[in-house]
Amino acid sequence: MLSTQTISEHASKDSCWIIVHGKVYDVTGFLDEHPGGSKIILKYAGKDATEAYEPIHPPNAIIDNLSTEKHLGDVDPSTVTKVVKVISEAEKQRQALIAKRPPLDEILNLHDFEAVAKLILPDKAWAYYSSASDDEITIRENRAAYQRVWFRPRILRDVTVVDWSTTILGQKSNLPVYISATALGKLGHPDGELNLTRAAGKHGVIQMIPTLASCSFDEIVDAALPNQPLFLQLYVNRDRTITKRYVQHAEKRGVKGLFITVDAPQLGRREKDMRMKFVGDDAGAKVQENMSGVKKDEGVARAISSFIDPSLSWKDIPWFRSITNMPIILKGVSTPEDAVLALEAGVQGIVLSNHGGRQLDTSRSGLENLIDIVNVLKTRGPWPNPNFSVFVDGGVRRASDVLKALALGASAVGIGRGFLYAFCSYGEAGVEKAFKILGDELEMNMRLLGARNLKELVPEMVDANALQAHVGATPRDNLFDSTYQPLRLAEFKAAKL
Ligand SMILES: Cc1cc2nc3c(=O)[nH]c(=O)nc-3n(C[C@H](O)[C@H](O)[C@H](O)COP(=O)(O)O)c2cc1C
Known about the structure:
Layout: H1 4-8, E1 17-20, E2 23-26, H2 38-42, H3 50-53, H4 61-65, E3 71-74, H5 89-99, H6 110-120, H7 123-130, H8 137-146, E4 150-151, E5 166-168, E6 171-173, E7 177-179, H9 194-203, E8 206-209, H10 217-223, E9 230-234, H11 240-252, E10 257-261, H12 271-276, H13 283-289, H14 300-303, H15 317-323, E11 328-333, H16 336-344, E12 349-352, H17 366-378, E13 389-393, H18 399-407, E14 412-415, H19 417-449, E15 462-463, H20 478-483
The protein binds flavin mononucleotide (FMN).
Flavin mononucleotide is lined by residues 128-129, 142, 180-183, 210, 212, 233, 261, 331, 353, 355-356, 358, 393-396, 414-418.
GO cellular component, one term: mitochondrial intermembrane space
Subcellular location: Mitochondrion intermembrane space
Pfam family, one: Cyt-b5
C-alpha cells in the first residue's frame, strides 16, 4: 500500500506516478508514448487522475498498456484526504439546465435531443460530438442532401397495416435503422454506450459497438440480452496481433458483423474539438505547454486515435476473411470504383459514409453516392444482392430520410449523433424514445407514401433529380440550423484590444 504522501513525491516528468481507480501506476516511461501527449498526464502527476481518465479511456487501457512492474499497488485509503470539489459557475449553470430539461414527452423529434444536448453537455463533450472536419461543409451537406430528394407518393393502397421491420446482415431488426458507432459515450453520460445496449435490447434494434467505446467491449456485451445481435466497428491497429485478438474475441462473444472503418487512416481536423484543448487548463498545465515536444493542438479525437494503421489496404482483406467468419462490412466507401473492389474482395457489404462529416471535408454525402453505386452494382450481379448489403449513414434525423435512402436502394440506414444525443440528454429512456419517434414517423410516412412494407419502397417513389446538383434553393432546415454551431476563428487571450 502506498500513501498519498509518497505518491505526491513522484510528480515530475522524471518520476511520474498517478492514481487510477485506487491503484498506483508509474507512467514515467509512458509519458512520451501517451497518444494524448504527456502534458495531460503531467497535470495529474502524483495525484488521482481517475476523473479525467474515465470518460476517454476504456477501463483496462492503463492496465493493458503498462508492463506489470509499473503497477505499483493500492493507495492506502487511510492517507487519502477528502478533497472538497469546487464546482465551477459553468458547472452549476449546467446542472441547473439539466434540472430544467423539457420532460421526455415533450421531445417530438431527433433534433429535440440535439437541442437539449447542446445546452446540457460539458463543453468538451459537445465539442467532440458535434465537431466535423475543416470547414464543416460535409456535415451540413449530409443533412441538405436529404432535402434535395422529393417524394412521389402512391395512393389508394389500403395502408391499414404497415410493417417496417427487416433483417440486417441476417439479423432481425424492428427498425430499418441501426445504431452507428460513436466513440467515448461517457463524455456525455455516466453510463455511456450501455444506454444504447439496454434500449436496443428492449426494442429489437442493433447496436454497432465502437472500438473506442468508453465502456469496455465485454461490459457492453454483458449488458445485452442473451440473443441480442450486436455489430462491432473496428479501427485496425498497427499491431495486427491486437486486432486479431480483438476480432476473434468479439466473434466468440457472439458479435454478428464486423464493420471495418476504412475512411480514417488519419483522423480529420475537427477544429471545435481542437480548440477545446485550450479551455479550462489550469496554470500548471500552461507551464507544461511550454515544454518542448508537447503537442498542443490535438483535441480528444486525435489524442485517442494514434494507434490506427494508415497502411491498411485492399491487400489486408483476405487476412480479415481468414481470421473471422463474421460478415465483413467496409465502413466509409464513397465511390462506385471502391464499391466494386469491395464486392470483388468478397466482403458482405459497405457503408456509404463520410464518418458524419468528420473526415474528408467537401466529400459527397452517402445518399448522393448511393445513386452511382447502386447503378454500378446492378450491372455486377443480382439486385438487391442478398450477399452484399449497402448501408448509408450521415445526417439522418427523420424517418422520411430513412425511407428516401431505402427507396434508392440502401439495405438499412445508420444513425450516429441522433442516438448519441438521445442518451446524453435522457439516458436509456431517451434512446427508447428515439426508437419510438422513428417508429411513429415510419408508420405515418409509409402510409402517406403508399408503401406497406419495405419491399414496396421503390426508386419510383422518390424524385432524386436534384440530388447530384450541388446548387439550387431548398427550404431551410430550421431545426437542424438552430442547433448547428458555426465554427469560430482564433481568439485573443485577453479580450481587451
Ligand atoms: C462523436 C462521434 C464519434 C464517432 N466515432 C466513430 C468511431 O469511433 N468509428 C467510426 O467508424 N465512426 C465513428 N463515427 C461516425 C459514425 O459511426 C457515423 O458514421 C456518423 O455519426 C453518421 O452521421 P450522423 O452522426 O449524422 O448520424 C463517430 C461519429 C460521431 C458523431
